[in-house]
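so im writing up the methods section and need the 4-deoxy-L-threo-5-hexosulose-uronate ketol-isomerase record in one place, dumping it here so i stop losing it
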Amino acid sequence: MKIIQHVHSEDFKTYGTDKIRERFLLDGLKEKDKANFVYSHYDRMVTGLITPTTEVVPLGTYDILRADFFLERREMGVINVGVAGTIEADGTTYHLAKLDCLYLGKGVKDVKFSSKNANEPAVFYILSAPAHAAYPTTYLQNADAFSAQLGSVETANERKIMRYIHKDGIQSCQLVMGLTILSTGSVWNTIPPHTHDRRMEVYFYFDVDEEHRVFHYMGEPQETRHIIVANHEAILSPTWSIHAGSGTKNYSFIWGMAGENLDYADMDTFGVKELK
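--- predicted struct ---
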């Protein structure tokens, strides 16, 4: 498990491309029949991918967690961005189609991930945050998630937002999680951009065509930077940073937060004209 420490907003202003990618880009997560995780000091969020093909991949534990099992003091949200897969949690089996979500609460011990077809595997994207209480394991199909249409064709940001884990959806201690799908012809996400000083966020980009890329914008609103992101790569977003993006083609991404509250709308927005 890779470990990433905090970065101060003033220090960030001196970073070049390589250091920005080193400190914020989560790449190389997708490996067949392996669980790859990154432990972040931002709200102690753990981000990872599990891509089972011919093998069942168990959820192990790691030295950095100082726990007998992964979810001893943690909760977890899982969204499948691949083809059909299965998660077995303490003897109960859940079948996840693409974009289905499973929440696993504090105390779940035995978790195993598998794919229905090794040639068309599931790709399980995972966020995990510390938990002080146990909430029940909950499965939610994509079709049943809260959804809303935002943006417009004229501004190239027509998109559908789906909320899975939030205060009016799947209950959790501090994890908030959902996804956004951009319409054909739209490339901008999260415009106007925002920050939220009370919690960090992770963006995970998927359904990005192999020959295309997303330009992810971050930094303080008056001094922004960008990272070029490929399919199945994620970006850590500190509390002081905006998080927005534009692609060379439409794409999708999962957003997830942990911190002070569960209010999806808790954000501080900035007009496009304010950005520098």
